[in-house]
Amino acid sequence: MTEVTPPCPARPASVLRQRHIIMIALGGAIGAGLFVGSSAAIAAVGPAVLLGFVAVGMLVMLVMRMLGEMVVASPGKGSFVEYIRAAHGNGAAFTTGWLYWFFWLVALGSEAIAGAILLHDWIRLPVWVLATALIVALNLVNRMAVHIFGECEFWLSLIKVASIVAFVVAGGLYVAHVFGPGVPVVHNVTGHGGIFPHGAMGVLAIIPTLLFTMIGSEIATVAAGESAEPAKNVAYVTRSLGTRIMLFYSLSIALILMIVPWWTIEPGHSPFVAAMQVMGIPGAAACMRVVVLTAVLSCMNSSLYITSRILAELSRHGDAPALLQRRNSQNTPVNAIMANSLAGGVVAFSSILAPDTVFSFLLSCSGGVILLVYSLIVTAYVVTRRAATPAMRQAYFRLPLFPVINMATLGGVLVIFGAMLLNPSQRMTALASLGTTVFFVLVHALRRKNQA
What pTM value is reported for the model? Predict the structure, then answer.
């Protein structure tokens, strides 16, 4: 397998610790999509949404497990893009890296606007000013030593995790009649059409939406490369992360379904607020507003981090302008951070100036590309495991039922994409994402032709 020159090591005083890696992983997978976006999924399919969350959680868990085993077996390569490069060549790495960068760049811009709208009720400044201020502030955080980013992300993610834990504890006590008047659990869950009020096929239709609420945990494998013990940290995170995410999502959604009649949940309104209001928790809306803002800032922080690392890595291989790999005295890729901040600002402004044209187009083009990224991680794992020596396979590759489980995971990704094509509301996103993929494939082909 082709060896890739590892990036310059971070200075010992400026590395991420294991607690940073864990919270970066959890924070990447737990965002505003859970706290607010889950309301649309619940309203669409009712109690069966819980089965969808469990299925998606298992998919994410398997992809992370495969990625983790590759990193532990051969640490120091860089991001997951480098493992795809080693397995499938430069063309696949070029396409994957730029697709992943584009996905998180659009997320950065859209989250900046979401955060600005949340702040607007407290700070009466124009939304574009607030969005710019958020991007500038997180740009400064990312330009500092990497442990500053890690510390910032640790506390932002801790607020989200603590909020979910507190909600689960309070909800569990309420359902158990420890406090409050009690709640008719059976009626709330099955009293309006049963578990599948809109049919089993409805669950398949919302799977893509649920997947996009859990994306982001793979950022931890990149962050682990800037820690003192990357292999150890990746192994720990990838073994435990999927289980933790499934527990957080499934427990909180299950309690919401028990406490609140699912047919009363309004899309776009936090189901957590609805449940806390039923439980009589004071200040529920204000508390959730702070948590959602925290989730938005965490997403922006992680987006700027991962896009800058991916861009600098592409630059080292000649797949992006050379100046983007420049690092400052703190060993952070400052030019890549600045470029992504400017590009994220353009995306944010497009949502203000042309929300129904340019911004809608960008969202559609980026919405499904993560499915290709996950597919290539799965296939890269198959290639890497088969190419490894028997000793390496025994020591590092322990995913059971290989390669059946890999093919099943890949099949799950294809089913999700098929569901997007069949769903009229998501069909354009699927087709536009295919177009984005073809675009980057053609760009790479033209570059090879010009270099020949």
Answer: 0.90
